[in-house]
Amino acid sequence: MSNRYITSHFPLISILLFSLSFALFVQGYILEQLVEFGLYDGMREFFSENGIKLTLLFLLVFLFFMIFSALKLIADTVFQLSMLFFSKDEEGKELIKVRYGTWIFLISGILSLFLTFNWIWLLLLFVFTCFIYFTYFIYTVSSSLTFLGMCGMVFFQVIFWSTFILLILFACFKLYNSFIASLP
Predict the structure, then answer these.
(1) How many domains does the chain have?
(2) Contacts (Cβ under 8 Å, ≥6 apart) of 88
(3) Confidence of residue 111 (pLDDT cuts 50, 70, 90)
(4) Hey, which of 60-64, 139-143, 152-156 has the most confident mean pLDDT?
């Protein structure tokens, strides 16, 4: 049985798994900080311990789900835009072949559940997964690219994501500096 849509739900499951993994780590960190600041006991007067943990986990999963969904939307748009600029494929057959790469994210999402103890390992797994998927993407669509088209696609991706990350870091740095400057 072969169905083109058999892997259509893999991106959603992968996003949920990565969101859960990052949320579990951040939940543990926030709970440690609440205990350290002495706020956790006060919160337990109004909510049960499990209620606090479940509510915090739900909100964090929701937050990470939104972040990863936005990143997927941006990545899909950038991939398809680079295909528009550099590919000879006008019918979209190459994009159909690329969909099987969602297995990469699904397997990594499952692995991420075992790495919830360390955010560095989680982040490294996510970045490594993105790199593997990008390599798979380039390999899969290489039949519709010239050498210059392949170079253009790689540079387009690298320049876009580098600029995107640098802009986010710059905005965070500016916000941090303005916060520090406003302290008495």
Answers:
(1) 1
(2) 144, 145, 146, 149
(3) very high
(4) 60-64
